[in-house]
Amino acid sequence: MKTLVLGAGGIGGYFGGRLAEAGEDVTFLVRPKRREQLARDGLVIESPHGNARFPVKTVVAGELRPGYDAVLFTCKAYDLDSAMDAIAPAMDGKTAVVPQLNGIAHLDALDKRFGKPQVMGGVAQINVTLKRDGTVAHMDSLSRIVFGERDKRPSARSQALADAFAKTKVEWKLSPDIEQEMWEKVVFLSALAATTCLFRGTVGQIMAAPGGREAMQRAIGANIEIATREGYAPRPAAIEFATARLTDPKGTWNASMMRDMEAGNPVEADHIVGWMLERARKHGTDDAILSLAYTHLKTYEARRAAGLLPGTAS
């Protein structure tokens, strides 16, 4: 299977890198500076599942042509439009897009741009970041990718992708109901993002703070109710995973959105927390944690736009 990976950052670098490490035909669509870095140092992965350094194929804008079976589409929601523009030269009506964005809202935009039959569903569950030196740093043992056809039908392309990931160190799943999986992910993620951004701490730090466990449990319960009202009631295993991960007193993880805030970067406030908040209000369900977190995130965005973050004020 010939796979194009959008970017070689945290998610793309890790999952695409593990495919390349296993001998799959993988090309990374990157910016010129990242291409130079990869040509000089190789793709470097640090992970509990094994460190690695190896050469990879790259392409930059202007060089991209059709001929790929799938695009592993990894970007932040606020870069969605430019990311679609970037992969457009590779999309020939046969290439499948496998999105690994957080949330669900991006599906409508991808469907409109490339046609719904070409857009699969996907979920990434991993705590990973890109260091300044270009190292893909995988920060705990969770390393899972889920993908599948949104019409719930088996396909040669989804099976080929499954066969490719079967050769890697990654935990993977070819899902017969990927939109259910995506809803279960957003239930988990929006609770993680809302709480860790609002309280500016890891899960373990929140659990140790007065009222932290109660706030987290309220966030989880509210999100489960939203998904249920939308027709995607989380399954028991998904609830068990989310609850264990979000209430672990030793949890060293937080949301990438919080890390973006700490770094003064753009955040996916509307795509994740705001999107869930809209649905909470539509159904009249508990929106307390989501509402407070969204106000916090939008205040951060306004201060960032005005150059008022610490270290940027004139």
Poorly predicted ranges (pLDDT <50, ≥5 residues)? none
What structural class do helix, strand and pairing data support?
alpha/beta
| Assembly state of the chains shown | single chain
Quantity of strands, as a count? 10
Strand order of the largest sheet: 5-2-1-6-7
Q: What distance separates the N and C termini?
A: 52 Å
Rg to the nearest angstrom?
Answer: 19 Å
> Biggest sheet, in brief?
5 strands, parallel
Helix content: 40-55%
Beta strand %: 15-25%
Number of helices: 12
Mean pLDDT: 97
H/E element string? EHEHEEEEHEHEEHEHHHHHHH
Query: Any idea what the shape is?
Result: globular
Protein described:
- The mean pLDDT is 97.
- This protein has a five-stranded parallel sheet, with helices on both faces. Strands 3, 4, 8, 9 and 10 form a five-stranded mixed sheet that branches.
- It is 47% helix and 18% strand.
- The chain has helices at 10-21, 32-41, 80-87, 106-114, 156-165, 178-199, 203-208, 212-229, 236-246, 256-263, 269-283, 288-305; strands spanning 2-6, 25-29, 43-46, 52-54, 57-59, 70-73, 96-99, 121-130, 136-148, 171-174.
- The longest helix is centred in the middle third of the chain and has 22 residues, at 178-199.
- The protein is globular and about 50 Å long.
- Strand 3 and strand 4 (52-54) form a beta hairpin.
- Helix 6 packs parallel to helix 9 (236-246) and helix 8 (212-229) runs antiparallel to helix 9 (236-246).
- With 314 residues, it is of the alpha/beta class.
